[in-house]
Amino acid sequence: MTMFCRPVTQTKVICVECRKHAVRWVANRRMSEKSDTNSARQTNGPLSGYRVLDLSRVLAGPYCTMILGDLGAEVIKVERPGSGDDTRSWGPPFKGQEAVYFLTVNRNKKSVAVDIKTRKGQNIIRQLASKCDVLVENYIPGKLAQYNLGYDQLKTECPRLIYCSISGYGQTGPYAKRAGYDVIVSGVAGLMHITGPKDGEPCKVGVAMTDLSTGLYAHGAIMAAILQRQKSGQGQHIDCDLFSTQVASLINIGGNFLNAGIEATRHGTAHPSIVPYQAFKTQDSYILVGAGNDGQFRLLCKRLGLEQLIEDKKFSTNKARVTNRKELLDLLKKMFNTNTTQYWLDLLENSGIPYGPINNMAAVFSDPQTIHNRMIQTIQHPDIGDIRVPGPPVRFSDFPRDAPSAPPTLGQHTDHVLSNILQLQPKEIERLRVEGVVQ
Length: 439
Hints:
Strand order of the largest sheet: 5-2-1-6-7-8
Number of helices: 18
Number of strands: 13
Distance between the termini: 19 Å
Structural class: alpha/beta
Radius of gyration: 27 Å
Largest sheet: 6 strands, parallel
């Protein structure tokens, strides 16, 4: 190879420096061959032919780009050399050397390790941006502009680029420069205030719903921008943030305050405007029951043998049930506590009433509906064998699910991307690696 000072086949003595290069080249070539297999994923998905440059980390951004990858887009994930995405170290648990957290939100991506703090690293990102349809990033507003990688700096040379910024609080405003993790923003934006037991402390939701909702909003906004680009021929900047997403997601609770001046309180599993709509303790666990209209309440009363409640004016309408919440719930709590959860599940089967158990993870992933909907996705990872993750929740009639590519190892596709997309020669890539620009 041109990286050696002389062809290694011409002499039995190889200099020490060449030997180092040779060892490094063989290792990189093996990784490249592995990445070629991982990169060979063919798809006829809705986003097949679109390329996404992913400069995001942790959850909201990676969740967004994973959805785009599930839909067929080619996703190039840019990571820091040495450490990579923060979630690579978020464990235990680990699967081999990889944190399970990272594995769950990074399928169908290629990893390129580039130091964007260097001038050469910035040039690589600009070149990649010119080859991509979408760029997703979640740096603190203004940070990428310091590296000449902000939207205003890229839009001239990449006029068709859709540039999606995901931040804690938005690109402008009094909180723009604040870092924004899910749990912090869920508190600032009101979610924790309305989550938890009625007389208890505010609680964090079990998963990072503010992050996940922001990723979903960003994915939808990117799809809309792609459609608009088909009309205008121009890209644009998308400003998506956790705070705005969470405020928007307050929906009826926010509306209650804005229109009726009603300050929200915590209701545990109950609903402020629907009764009954909550968990009830049984002899051995809990059951959830929701009567979203008067017809469902009548069905519930018949199944429970409480027909006398149907004509009682205190309970005959939802408005009356909300007013007389405590009296009705005391009756229902007493009833459900007389038998087991399975007894009530069997009794309510095919009733037309929304109901269900509160499942742990073992029950969720062995549930027949989980299996039927193919929600457990098994992926072959090149280093750690099979991994299992929650799969895509959407099914298309004309877009069968492809076998996903495994979440990448750090820098697994650096050589593949630089040589195949940017047309860099092996000697150039090796020089960048020696200089610490790429890994």
